[in-house]
From TrEMBL:
<feature type="binding site">
    <location>
        <position position="77"/>
    </location>
    <ligand>
        <name>Mg(2+) 2</name>
    </ligand>
</feature>
<dbReference type="Pfam" id="PF00586">
    <property type="entry name" value="AIRS"/>
</dbReference>
<dbReference type="Pfam" id="PF02769">
    <property type="entry name" value="AIRS_C"/>
</dbReference>
<keyword id="KW-0479">Metal-binding</keyword>
<feature type="binding site">
    <location>
        <position position="32"/>
    </location>
    <ligand>
        <name>Mg(2+) 3</name>
    </ligand>
</feature>
<dbReference type="InterPro" id="IPR036921">
    <property type="entry name" value="PurM-like_N_sf"/>
</dbReference>
<dbReference type="InterPro" id="IPR010918">
    <property type="entry name" value="PurM-like_C_dom"/>
</dbReference>
<feature type="binding site">
    <location>
        <position position="32"/>
    </location>
    <ligand>
        <name>Mg(2+) 4</name>
    </ligand>
</feature>
<keyword id="KW-0547">Nucleotide-binding</keyword>
<dbReference type="InterPro" id="IPR036676">
    <property type="entry name" value="PurM-like_C_sf"/>
</dbReference>
<dbReference type="GO" id="GO:0005524">
    <property type="term" value="F:ATP binding"/>
</dbReference>
<dbReference type="GO" id="GO:0009229">
    <property type="term" value="P:thiamine diphosphate biosynthetic process"/>
</dbReference>
<feature type="binding site">
    <location>
        <position position="47"/>
    </location>
    <ligand>
        <name>Mg(2+) 4</name>
    </ligand>
</feature>
<feature type="binding site">
    <location>
        <position position="151"/>
    </location>
    <ligand>
        <name>ATP</name>
    </ligand>
</feature>
<dbReference type="InterPro" id="IPR016188">
    <property type="entry name" value="PurM-like_N"/>
</dbReference>
<dbReference type="GO" id="GO:0009030">
    <property type="term" value="F:thiamine-phosphate kinase activity"/>
</dbReference>
<feature type="binding site">
    <location>
        <begin position="124"/>
        <end position="125"/>
    </location>
    <ligand>
        <name>ATP</name>
    </ligand>
</feature>
Length: 329
């Protein structure tokens, strides 16, 4: 382990992390636990995602954006459930590359997104690892009692929508690894999306009010909709032609000769952190109105039918895609 100019974990906790603690419920990070009172009329919604160097982020990524990505992938899971974020527990598994300046950068990233999304640190754990750095967050949020949107509520006749744009995550990884060549501002936009995706926190109340089922797009649009289809006991059919692309992804797409292969790659690449949801046809107008109000793009991709499985079509033909997205082995 390279010498880290840190006395011990208590110094990291007291000097760097304690200022991020929830003023009322974080106990200054000086106790063994955080204690929250219950909130009448709401359910506590919890989620946890870990991120690992070389699996979820690159060793060359700045630690402030690693911290932001850590919070954002978790905020994205809550947003897809229609829940409002409250606070989080954090585990830091520092590697040898995480000296004091890197830890300061990591904490600066946390502070930035705490302010952006209105959340606070509640507690956690700090250890070192001889392996690559990894971090995990348990994010807590609130949803109106009994109103959390699951993966299991899609019904035949529902429509399928996705927020924002699809494909910037996988293209951003390629851009960060210099496996793409586009204009510098396009490359920068894609790398920014890979490092700091935008969780749809502001859209969560609309999801809670209008969606029958919902999931965030982490593994890949097709894979994540397949999770919804399986959980709901229905079939989901989408067309890839309307896949919403950012300006940078469109520039990449315009240079491809095989549009089907290109869209398949974007719809299975993952790391989008958009929301894929189903809703009753009667809810479409209200859903689009809410999206407009948030200046959020929303695209109808397909529909829910009786049956099972997930079908992605291009040119009206169902594509053969083995996984539909990312899986950990
Ligand atoms: N090690 C684990 N222990 C308990 N539950 C887990 C574990 N890993 C995953 N899960 C649960 O399995 C479900 C699917 O996980 P995952 O695919 O990571 O979901 P997501 O895409 O929403 O992050 C979630 O309910 C998650 O809480
Ligand atoms: C260096 C690197 N390689 C590959 C990827 C792509 N990738 C890794 S994990 C993953 C899926 C999302 O992560 P996961 O742990 O499955 O999150 P969850 O589905 O639990 O939210 C993707 C698309 C990446 N983000 N970074
Ligand atoms: Mg997960
Ligand atoms: Mg997740
Ligand atoms: Mg996953």
């Amino acid at each position: 382990m390279p010498s880290v100019d840190v006395a011990d974990e208590f110094e990291t906790i007291a000097k760097l992390l304690a200022p991020l603690a929830h003023p009322e419920w974080g106990r200054g990070l000086r106790d063994d636990v955080a204690v929250l009172p219950s909130r009448p009329g709401f359910d506590l919604v919890l989620t946890k995602d870990a991120i690992v160097e070389s699996v979820h982020f690159l060793a060359t990524d700045p630690l402030d954006t690693v911290a932001q990505k850590l919070l954002r992938v978790n905020l994205s899971d809550l947003a897809a459930k229609g829940a409002e974020p409250f606070g989080y527990l954090l585990a830091c598994h520092w590697s040898g590359r995480c000296g004091w300046p890197e830890r300061e950068a990591f904490v600066a990233g946390l502070a930035k997104d705490q302010a952006e999304f209105g959340i606070h640190l509640l507690g956690g754990d700090t250890v070192v690892t001889p392996g690559p750095a990894s971090f995990s967050v348990t994010m807590l949020g609130w949803a109106a009692k009994g109103r959390t949107v699951g993966r299991a509520g899609a019904r035949p006749g529902d429509l399928v929508f996705v927020t924002g744009t699809i494909g910037d995550g996988v293209l951003g990884l390629m851009a960060a690894q210099a496996r793409l060549s586009l204009a510098p501002e396009r490359m920068a936009a894609l790398v920014r999306h890979y490092r700091t995706p935008m969780p749809r926190v502001a859209f969560a109340p609309a999801v809670g009010d209008l969606a029958t089922a919902s999931v965030d797009v982490s593994d890949g649009l097709i894979a994540d909709l397949a999770h919804v289809a399986r959980a709901s006991g229905v079939r989901i059919e989408i067309d890839l032609e309307p896949t919403p692309l950012s300006i940078a992804a469109q520039a990449w797409f315009d240079d491809r000769v095989d549009a089907e292969a290109a869209l398949s790659m974007l719809a299975t690449g993952g790391d989008d952190y958009e929301i894929a949801l189903t809703c009753r046809p009667e809810a479409e107008t209200a859903l689009r109105r809410e999206a407009d109000r948030h200046h959020l793009r929303i695209t109808r991709m397909g529909k829910v039918t009786a049956g099972q499985g997930m079908a992605a079509r291009y040119g009206g033909r169902v594509l053969e895609l083995n996984q539909g997205g990312w899986t950990h082995r």
